[in-house]
Design a protein that fits this description.
The chain has one domain: Jelly Rolls, CATH 2.60.120.10. Helix content is 3%, strand content 52%. The chain is built from one helix and ten strands; from the N terminus they run ββββββββαββ. The strands form three sheets. The protein has a four-stranded antiparallel beta sheet with strand order 3-10-5-8. The protein has a four-stranded antiparallel beta sheet with strand order 4-9-6-7, with no helix packed on it. The model has no long low-confidence stretch (mean pLDDT 91).
């Protein structure tokens, strides 16, 4: 059974150009995950069962983001590349998800902020690996 994620984006430079886009991403399954990461801790969040190329949509939102001194970061799977979560992050389509280097099965969050953070993750995936 196919599911749909409708998305839209509206970006405007003050006094400058405006870019608007919207579309629907067809997926076969989705999960919405909510997790609290305590201050000074690291926590692993499973976002999909194994299999390359299944995640087609990934949204990561926090109620608090990194600042100039303290960091909220994550790693994909067991990779060493650390990604700073300093704003909402959205990856739409296989090409965008591939920017994460390896198909995400889990995210490992580290909260070096002084307070706990609440993180929402929305994952849209295919049940089987899409053809190339």
């Amino acid at each position: 059974m196919t599911e749909s994620i409708n998305w839209s984006l509206n970006v405007q430079v003050i006094g400058g150009p405006k870019v608007m886009a919207s579309d629907t991403k067809e997926i076969e399954a989705y999960d919405k995950i909510e997790v609290t990461i305590e201050a000074g801790t690291t926590e692993q969040v499973e976002i999909q069962p194994g299999g390359d190329g299944r995640v087609q949509f990934l949204l990561i939102k926090s109620d608090t983001y990194s600042n100039d001194i303290e960091k909220l970061t994550y790693k994909v799977n067991e990779l060493t590349t650390i990604i700073e979560l300093d704003a909402l992050q959205v990856f739409i389509g296989n090409g965008a998800v591939e920017l994460l280097t390896k198909p995400p099965e889990k995210l490992v969050f580290t909260n070096d902020l002084a307070t706990p953070v609440s993180i929402e993750i929305l994952v849209g995936r295919m049940a089987i690996v899409p053809p190339e």
